Amino acid sequence: MVIYIIKCGIIIGTRRKETLQQIKFLLLNNIKIKNRSDEIGNIDLFYFPENSRKSLISPEFIDKLKKYDVLILSGGYTAYFFLNSSGFISIENKESIMPLVSIGVIHGGILNNKIVILKGGSIGNNDIYLKIIKTLDADTVNSPHE
Question: CB–CB of 143/2 below 8 Å?
Answer without folding.
Answer: yes
